[in-house]
Amino acid sequence: MHDDSKGFFALDRELNRDDYITLVYRFECTGDPWTAAAHLCQEQSTAQWKRVGVDEDLRGIYGSKVTALEVLAKLEAPSLPGMLHHIDGQLHAALVHIAYPIINFGNRIPNLLTAILGEGVFFCPSIYAIKLMDIEFPDSYLEQFPGPKFGIKGLRAWTGIKDRPLFMGVIKPNIGLDPQAFSDLAYQSWLGGLDIAKDDEMLCDTTWSPFAERTRVLGRARADAEQRTGKRCCYLANITDEVDRLLMMHDIAVRNGADMLMLNAMCVGLSAVRMVRNHTQVPVVAHFDMIAPFSRVPGFGVSSIVVTKLQRLVGFDAIIGIGLGSRMKSTPEEVLSNTRACTDPMGPIEPALPVPAGSQWAGSLKPLHDMIGNADFAIVPGRAVFNHPAGPKAGAIALQQGWDAIKAGVSMEAYALSHEELRQSIGDILG
Amino acid sequence: MHDDSKGFFALDRELNRDDYITLVYRFECTGDPWTAAAHLCQEQSTAQWKRVGVDEDLRGIYGSKVTALEVLAKLEAPSLPGMLHHIDGQLHAALVHIAYPIINFGNRIPNLLTAILGEGVFFCPSIYAIKLMDIEFPDSYLEQFPGPKFGIKGLRAWTGIKDRPLFMGVIKPNIGLDPQAFSDLAYQSWLGGLDIAKDDEMLCDTTWSPFAERTRVLGRARADAEQRTGKRCCYLANITDEVDRLLMMHDIAVRNGADMLMLNAMCVGLSAVRMVRNHTQVPVVAHFDMIAPFSRVPGFGVSSIVVTKLQRLVGFDAIIGIGLGSRMKSTPEEVLSNTRACTDPMGPIEPALPVPAGSQWAGSLKPLHDMIGNADFAIVPGRAVFNHPAGPKAGAIALQQGWDAIKAGVSMEAYALSHEELRQSIGDILG
Predict the structure, then answer these.
(1) pLDDT single digits (tens) A363-392
(2) Is the Cβ of A421 closer than 8 Å to some Cβ of chain B?
(3) Per the CB 3.0–4.6 Å rule, which of A386, B10, B199, B245 could disulfide with B65?
């Protein structure tokens, strides 16, 4: 190991943990993994730690530091083809724990992102592939972030649903309907017992569905549905838009009767989410666009778990993300880790409601319930509700029947014998 | 091909191109590539295109449409391991051109991003790997975006440098110096002829270098250096911060004498950049943090070229991105494509100055000049200037000498025989 590398290592017990966040990276490198890890710290913190002609070493306070390194394997070839441009020695895979000094960037999200996912991380000599696997924060740091305003407890109070998963539904056709036609579908779904009818993540403020008009029409329909059903009927409006319009979009939506708001988190940026969180009067829900391109590849980018933690940190009350099923291209372990990142203790930060998504229907309830081990989650079907053969009301009823079957300890197929809407759902989905 | 798929195909000549952006994706799929491409269009636009019981088809106006598909290869195995969870037929690689209706999202950046890089794109049945390779916009769409306020022409007027590449330099040590010590280094580099002394992308508004104080001290030093050198000396201040602080950061910086501003584009979000562009009084420069995690993997995510185009669209005057050299893990072709994405005709959008970066020094000028074919670029060394054995002034002088050697048609080594600062640079870099 090069002599200069030593300044980028520290023993965990030597550090005041309140001063550091912990970053866990998996990387592949050519040559010595310890030298590579030191380079990583150098590139992502004090690239040059002394002035010419001055006897100083800024690494003590400002350098990020390797606190643990585990060599996972010697490799014959890179696990990702096309990433390695210069071979210079034996290839290794390693897992490294890095303590990163908070004093370098403070409590600002864009500066945190620069530190953990910036140029230095991905363009480090000899490291040809790297993925940020996890992140941990000291409580004294977490205290500086808002976290969810409502959280799971608040969402249960908001919706009035105490002891089962929340039923969200993506109103479909998602694109192309005028506000009245769109609202009529939501209304039907509410009559069937859907808790939250929501805009698709693609639906925004458009010429054919102006946001002000859509929220006004849906807000009225929601009030009507509540009167008819005697239960809370939520409309989750997608306010994803230019960041300097977000607070205005919030105000329009809330004034017009939308009672939950959605943001496509990475498309507006996590900092913009924090801004909305500090302003919002209603629960705010994350949609997971633009997370896949940097989280899906094993061995490169950033783990979805890190993104989930950051989304909770900036204040989402519910987080729609990857769920079970082949379309979601993820393992049950990753889905479970993400739900836990929503709900595990995180200092003063409230739990967020996990919403593992993807082509769901009544039959999605049981595997999620079994995996998570409790009812603190939501499902978010689209076509299963709004393309149900008997229409959206029947589609929503089928969700409740799916849950009732679980509570009765009966298979869905058996329960469907006496429950027509569920029977039709099963027929439609399973062919 | 499934009958429903046909609604997601169109002939280019049937479409009014003013109504569509063009997306070029490379994907790998199991089974029929045409069906996969139709599914892609469905997932990313009208997931469900008719209501139950209504005879309608929303795909005509709102569906994205395959206009060309080229099967690139039959594959024996996925090009990326770990991405394919269910094999269902022969594997193919394909290149698809998709016309995406602008009416779905309008001229808002976060909604554009949702369409082109959202859930639908990355969680499409049978497509297990996909990368957005390129994007094209009709002029009528481009007119709705600001583009660079200064651009290359404006930057040349701003700096007074007419006929050579601009010399930027990242002040180092990048992290840990107080404003006065930091400013002293910038001052020395300006005396040596550096055009633009800049904050590192990691440096922000911190307790040990408060932004207001740093910009005040550097602003004064800049004025002094201009008086002593008789030439413009720019200070590029990094205003990357929470989005609701950006305009304030701009105002502080400009009032205190910073005359160029930097944003870590993806860390604040492209929409926030557009907001700053609409407010700024000085040139705005992009830094490339958090682009690598979704652009470096061949075959997954988004091409750096797309990100460069989007950065130009929202108004960056100069774009720091991947440059030549092994640390940058990119091919010369990709670097060149990115410089061209900055400068190629783009309707009413001004050219932005390309700044291909990464461990640069005087010797970086010639390969870039040869590749680009003109002097419309900047280099942005850090340690080569600020860790020059004789200090930052000598480091800056060496850059000019490197350029003078090119103009004289002499090799750097030959020119260095009579130019001490360049000789020391060569010794330091090449050992």
Answers:
(1) 999 999 999 999 999 999 999 999 999 999
(2) no
(3) B10
Q: Is the pLDDT of residue B112 over 90?
A: yes
In the listed set B89, B115, B142, which residue is the last one of a domain according to the structure?
B142
Mutate to test the interface with A, among B50, B64, B83, B175 (most CBs of A within 10 A): B175
Number of domains chain B contains:
2
Q: For residues A38-53, give the mean pLDDT.
A: 95
pLDDT tier at A88, thresholds 50, 70, 90 = confident
A78 and A22 within one domain: yes
Spatial CB neighbours of A29, under 8 Å, sequence gap ≥ 6: A36, A91, A92, A94, A126, A127, A128
| Encoded amino acid at B322, one letter | I
Q: What is the pLDDT of residue A431?
A: 63
Q: Establish if A173 touches chain B: CB-CB under 8 angstroms.
A: yes
How many angstroms separate the CA atoms of B364 and B356, rounded? 10
For B303-356, the pLDDT digits (tens) are: 999 999 999 999 999 999 999 988 888 899 999 999 999 999 999 999 999 999
Judge if B223 and B85 occupy the same domain: no
pTM, rounded to two decimals: 0.97
> pLDDT tens across A300-338, in order?
999 999 999 999 999 999 999 999 987 888 899 999 999
Nearest-CB residue to B243 (from A61, A172, A269): A269
Q: Give the C-alpha separation, A75 to A384, whole Å.
A: 45
Chain B nearest CA to A408, separation (Å): 31
Residues A222 and A104 in one domain: no
Q: What is the CA B360 to chain-centroid distance, rounded?
A: 18
Instruction: Flag whether pLDDT at A1 surpasses 60.
Output: no
B337 to chain A, any CB pair closer than 8 A? The answer is no
Determine the residue of chain B that is closest to A241 in CA distance.
B110
Residue B207 and residue B337 in one domain: yes
Residue of A nearest to B247 (CA): A244
> A90, A117, A142 — which closes off a domain?
A142
Q: Is B53 on the interface with A (CB under 8 A)?
A: yes
8 Å CB contact of B297 and A108: no
**Nearest chain A alpha carbon to B321:** A119
State whether B47 and A386 contact (CB < 8 Å): no
For B205, name the nearest residue in chain A, comparing CA atoms only: A105
Q: Give the Cα separation of B60 and A302 in Å (integer).
A: 38
DSSP-assigned letters across all residues of B387-398:
T-TT-HHHHHHH
pLDDT for B81 equals 84
Same domain, A117 and A214: no
DSSP code of A9?
Answer: B
Which of helix, strand or coil describes residue A340?
helix
Whether B1 has a pLDDT exceeding 60, the answer reads no
B229 touches chain A (CB under 8 A): no
Q: Which residues of chain A lie closer than 8 angstroms to B201, CB-CB?
A: 114, 118-119
> Does B106 lie in the same domain as B209?
no
pLDDT-above-70 percentage for chain B: 99
The answer on B207 and B310 residing in a single domain is: yes
Tell whether ipTM is more than 0.90.
Answer: yes
Q: How many CB atoms lie within 10 A of CB A409?
A: 7
In this complex, is the C-beta atom of B165 within 8 Å of any C-beta atom belonging to chain A? Answer: no
Task: Yes or no: say if A43 and A101 are a contact pair by the CB < 8 Å rule.
Answer: no
How confident is the model over B128-160, as pLDDT tens digits?
A: 999 999 999 999 999 999 999 999 999 999 999
List of chain B residues whose C-beta atoms are within 8 Å of the C-beta of residue A431: none
Q: Are residues A126 and A157 in the same domain?
A: no
User: Which of B115, B173, B274 faces A58 most closely, judged by CB atoms?
Assistant: B173
> Could you tell me the residue range of the domain that residue A7 belongs to?
3-142
Q: For residues B107 and A189, what is the distance between their CA atoms, to the nearest angstrom?
A: 31
Which chain B residues touch A83 with a CB distance below 8 Å? 296-298, 329
Work out the percent of chain B whose per-residue pLDDT is above 90: 93
